[in-house]
Write a structure and sequence with these properties.
Helix content is 40%, strand content 21%. By secondary structure, it is α/β, with parallel strands linked by helices. The chain has an eight-stranded parallel β-barrel, surrounded by nine helices. It has a three-stranded antiparallel sheet with strand order 11-12-13, covered by helices on one side. The protein folds into four domains: 274 residues, Alpha-Beta Barrel (TIM Barrel), CATH 3.20.20.70; 59 residues, no CATH class; 84 residues, Double Stranded RNA Binding Domain (2-Layer Sandwich), CATH 3.30.160.340; 56 residues, Double Stranded RNA Binding Domain. The longest helix is centred in the C-terminal third of the chain and has 25 residues. It has 18 helices and 16 strands.
């Protein structure tokens, strides 16, 4: 059975706190969703802001192969004629062939929000749908607060659906707008609506009770044809149904036809693409697509995993474009270490492995954390079993802080040995760590020009022993990217400069190793 996938990231998702898309971002996302085979893409509300008007002007020139772009809006205002309503005029002028409008299903909202009568609300729904139909649009009707409205006044809630149907709606979408409906009620109420409505139903769930994906799946099992949601679950308050979870669930757990299977294998790529444009850091523990979704830490888990992945993974991570990760920490056993050794094609004897594992556990006891520092961990294994030597060595480091004219300036002076050459250089920065990073790169640039592609993407400092005040141990985690891959490195010290130096050196050393291996492969 084919289930229509309706994405509302660009409209409902952009209402999430901290989420913002430029017009160019929105067009890029439209192209990506179309490429992956989404059925509908809600582009925005042209009647509400100039940005969305501009978006609909630009998206007209985009040649889409799979998706239809929908414009969003509301029913006409009480007492107004459709042809005089600014919102409906903007929808009709947007150029979108599909118009999705919402109206009130809950009598409480009719009285308190619209401040009108039940009869006028029914006319508003029918008139608005009918007007857009006359303008050549396929109209989807979002029955806002339908589940709450049904629980308060079943007869009136169902009557609002009939008004949309009478106006010519092609789809009627039942919305759990406040996100508080339970799965059992979803089924009961959908069954009641299906008995009164002759067009296909859809579902639009918010996640205020952590049930948006579950309720959407329950609705599909109850017979709805269309599911609405957002990439990464972005949306107002607690968000919307997360399509990055919903699509794999429907496709792999229930065998529904959603988007092409080859596209589902790019779900992790899509999640990270949208989060980057939204300027949002993706949650590591997000199901299916999170960096931790297939990460294994406990030694017993990893031991079983090596015998059969199905022991601790509900699907193959490659089915959604993700990858398995084995973490090494104080909770690890030899199985974790053996797994890592195989990843690096290292030969390991039992006693050597136990020694390294104890060293790792001792370092973590001191404050190191290798879960987010794969680069530093990799380097330690190479040093232990491949005789790896760092490509450069620090001979001397001096940090100069000078306060003058109410401004603090920072300068780093370093002396290094690179191969058989001695390098002495200095550089300024907007702080001591930035100055240190600039000086390090300046010293190495002539020897390793590829470091220009390695950029720090994140820098975190955590105080490990708050009771020691400014003398506390700090852990510095650095994330670096070369534009294709990301890696993390770590440093720990009572001196934040030393901890930062450790993490910075590892980040560049690891990047150079991976670049060399890439060139040799």
């Amino acid at each position: 059975m084919k289930i229509e996938i309706y994405d509302t990231t660009l409209r409902d998702g952009s209402q999430g706190e901290g989420v913002s898309f430029s017009v160019e971002d929105k067009v890029k996302i439209v192209k990506k969703l179309d490429e992956l085979g989404f059925d509908y893409i809600e582009g925005g509300w042209p009647g509400s802001n100039p940005k969305d008007v501009t978006f609909f002007e630009q998206v007209k020139d985009v040649q889409l192969k799979n998706a239809r772009v929908a414009a969003f809006g509301s029913t006409r205002k009480p007492g107004a004629r459709p042809e005089e309503d600014h919102n409906l005029q903007c929808l009709a002028a947007s150029g979108a062939q599909t118009a999705t409008i919402f109206g009130k299903s809950w009598d409480f909202h009719v009285y308190s929000a619209l401040e009108t009568t039940e009869e006028e609300n029914l006319k508003m729904i029918e008139d608005s749908v009918s007007y857009l139909r006359e303008k050549g649009c396929t109209v989807f009707y979002d029955a806002e607060h339908f589940f709450d409205g049904y629980k308060a006044n079943p007869k009136y809630a169902l009557t609002t659906l009939k008004a949309a149907l009478k106006g010519g709606a092609a789809r009627i979408i039942l919305c759990d707008t406040n996100g508080g409906t339970m799965p059992g009620d979803i089924v009961k109420i959908i069954n009641a609506a299906a008995a009164e409505v002759s067009v296909p139903l859809g579902i639009h769930c918010h996640n205020d009770s952590e049930l948006a994906v579950a309720n959407s799946m329950t609705a599909v099992q109850a017979g709805v044809l269309q599911v609405q949601g957002t990439i990464n679950g972005y949306g107002e308050r607690c968000g919307n149904a997360n399509l990055c979870s919903l699509i794999p669930n429907l496709s792999y757990k229930y065998d529904y036809d959603t988007i092409p299977q080859k596209s589902i294998k790019r779900m992790t790529e899509l999640s990270r693409f949208v989060s980057e444009l939204a300027n949002m850091h993706p949650p590591g523990d997000q199901p299916y697509v999170g960096v931790s979704a297939f990460a294994h830490k406990g030694g017993i888990h990893v031991s079983a995993l090596q015998k059969h992945p199905g022991t601790y993974e509900h699907i193959d991570p490659e089915l959604v474009g993700n990858s398995r990760r084995v973490l090494v920490s104080e909770l690890s056993g030899m199985s974790n270490l053996f797994y890592k050794y195989r990843e690096l094609n290292l030969e390991m004897q039992g006693e050597e492995g136990r020694r390294v594992l104890e060293e790792i556990k001792d370092l973590e006891n001191q404050g190191y954390q290798f879960e987010g520092a794969d680069g530093s961990f990799d380097l330690r294994l190479r040093k232990a079993f491949k005789g790896y030597q760092e490509p450069f060595k620090l001979d001397n480091l001096r940090i100069i802080l000078e306060f003058r004219e109410n401004q603090l300036s920072s300068e780093a002076v370093i002396k290094m040995t690179v191969g058989d050459k001695e390098v002495h250089t200095a550089s300024e920065g907007n702080g001591p760590v930035n100055a240190l990073d600039n000086a390090l790169r300046k010293a190495l640039n002539d020897f390793f020009p590829e470091i220009k592609d390695m950029q720090l993407t994140d820098y975190k400092v955590r105080v490990l022993d708050g009771k020691d005040g400014t003398g506390a141990i700090v852990r510095v985690l650095v994330e670096t990217s070369d534009g294709h891959k990301n890696w993390g490195t770590v440093g720990v010290s009572t001196n934040i400069i030393e901890a930062s130096w450790q993490a910075l050196v590892d980040s560049i050393a690891y990047g150079l190793i991976k670049k060399e291996e890439e060139n040799n492969s």
